[in-house]
């Protein structure tokens, strides 16, 4: 893994907060939205697979993630969708393909359901819109205990602020078909940024608002743009949950990513790049 060049990093001030993003290349805009508890560096393997003379790549740090600010608000699905919509509007992006993983995929689908004028297609990778109290509990026994405890009063804020790197490694490894696909330098970056002021509180708020990600599914039938709905073979979602989304999204193109888990942009960046090239 390499770093994002400093000259490609920017900070946008929008009503939802200060949002860090990277902007690379020219051509058709591709908006990259990461998973919960990661950040724009998550997409470095994918960016390396894409032609920067064909695509303008805009990778975003969602609020409370990476180097974006962590305002004292409720971190609902609607709040994240508002934040990304504000970025798209401020950067005056049009004819954009939104490529999202996990909550990023759910945000992309919600934007399309809103009829956002800048979004003309969505590639939704492992959308995070299922599971009792949030699907991340399916990652591992450790994740189930941790993300249940984080909801409790008093003890929850303490659990959220405990940033042990080994715990983060185990949780992320539970979302990979091949745990060796997790780059150590990405893990270091995630661990470091997760300890920034307000980020633990923001993450706990995201988890407390888990229902909003499931409720957002109700808007999917309103989507009128092409959608590629891709799931890793070993994603946390279950077959019935995947089929339900495919049925709700008009004319969705279903794809299964072989030998991949929840973090497909780490495990299968070449395949994801192929999906982008086919769709854009």
Task: Kindly describe this structure.
This protein is of the alpha/beta class and 280 residues long. The chain has a single domain, classed as 3-Layer(aba) Sandwich (Rossmann fold), CATH 3.40.50.1820. Helices cover 38% and strands 18% of the residues. The chain has 12 helices and 8 strands. An 8-stranded mixed β-sheet has the order 1-2-4-3-5-6-7-8, sandwiched between helices. α2 packs across α3 and α5 packs across α8. The model has no long low-confidence stretch (mean pLDDT 92).
Number of domains: 1
pLDDT averaged over residues: 92
Indicate the CATH topology: Rossmann fold
CATH class: Alpha Beta
What is the name of the CATH architecture? Answer: 3-Layer(aba) Sandwich
The description of the largest β-sheet is: 8 strands, mixed
Note the run of SSEs as H and E: EEEHEHEHEHHHHHHEHEHH
Topology summary:
Elements: E1 9-14, E2 17-24, E3 28-33, H1 44-47, E4 55-60, H2 77-90, E5 96-101, H3 103-114, E6 119-125, H4 141-149, H5 155-161, H6 165-173, H7 184-194, H8 199-208, H9 210-215, E7 227-232, H10 239-248, E8 253-257, H11 264-267, H12 269-279
Parallel strand pairs: 3-4, 3-5, 5-6, 6-7, 7-8
Antiparallel strand pairs: 1-2, 2-4
Helix pairs in contact: 2-3, 5-8
Relevant terms:
Rossmann fold, eight-stranded mixed β-sheet, globular, 280 residues
